[in-house]
Amino acid sequence: MLTATSGAGTGAVARPLVPDDPGRSGSAGGWAELQWNFAGPYGVDAPDAWGNLVAAGAPGGQGVTVAVLDTGVAYPGGDESEPGSPDLDPDLLVPGYDFVGDDDDPFDRNGHGTHVASTIAERTGNGVGLTGLAYGVRLMPVRVLDNYGEGEPGAIARGVRYAVDHGAQVINLSLNFVSDPRPASVHDLADALAEAHDRGTLVVVGAGNRGEDSVAYPASAPDVLAVGATTDSGCLASYSDYGEGLDLVAPGGGGDAHADDPHCGLGRIGARVFQVTRAAAPYVGFDLAGYQGTSMAAPHVAATAALVIASGVLGEHPSPDAVADRLRATARDLGAPGPDPLYGWGLVNAAAATAPGAPHRP
């Protein structure tokens, strides 16, 4: 059970929370051995953030809706022939849509979307699997990528509009175009992203996995939050795109890029980001799977944004710009002092972002 103590006469006092999810070790609290991205030296400080949200009366981001636009989500009860993830809460799922198959069953048969969704909203403190950063949010699955992880700009645009129309306060896009698309082909998507911002929805996008000094589309679009990836040593990941327009970084796992930092260097291979998702073929069912990429980084920021909204530190109904500014102002500075092309404003810090009072950089 996740709890927080109260201070006599001073209101709720947050305490770090340590869930009992067993991870791979099978022992209570074993999640922390795998989830360096939440609780390690270069994680996002999930335990303190969880305590902040319990103290605020909105455990795990309760009351906020996050849409995951991806290969779908393997949600419980979503397919009679295939089981859903045992570590997603069916009571926190809201109706979504499949813009690939054009039906109301956005079930994931790839695993990518479920991994992303689990970083955001996996059940926490239930003695099963691993933990989710914003475990109390309502999760909206929207399928815009096919079973091979490929999708068209038009389907993504329709997914964005669907999420906004159905009350999503945060949208996660762990997807990019491999090469810069022709303006005509993404005109509708660009409009949809602008509309989402104007209607009060924050869109978070992975920066891309080309390792280039150029943020990939749609992370390069105006009015979205572009997220690069870091490793468990706090270095830019070797595959992560960077450069002008990068807002933040978050754990994505894998090997270090050489980033003019003495403790970073090409050749070092770090841990991946683990979550419960579909087991790799030929196995069936679900397993603790380690992925790497800016796809894994983006949901840390989307989840933290949801926690900020739920915490009330920005008042009721904060604008996307206010939430984005809070995330930037409370990020942990990495690399050169201040914002820079490699790390943007720094490593997202869920605890600092949700702490009451004026923002501070950890």
From TrEMBL:
SUPFAM superfamilies: Subtilisin-like. The keyword Transport does not apply. The keyword Hydrolase applies. Residues 1-31 are annotated as: Disordered. Belongs to the peptidase S8 family. InterPro entries: Peptidase_S8/S53_dom (IPR000209), Peptidase_S8/S53_dom_sf (IPR036852), Peptidase_S8_Ser-AS (IPR023828), Peptidase_S8_subtilisin-like (IPR050131), Peptidase_S8_subtilisin-rel (IPR015500). The active site is at D70 (charge relay system), H112 (charge relay system), S295 (charge relay system). This is Peptidase S8/S53 domain-containing protein. Residues 61-346 form the Peptidase S8/S53 domain. Keywords: Hydrolase, Protease, Serine protease. It comes from the Bacteria. It comes from Nocardioides conyzicola.
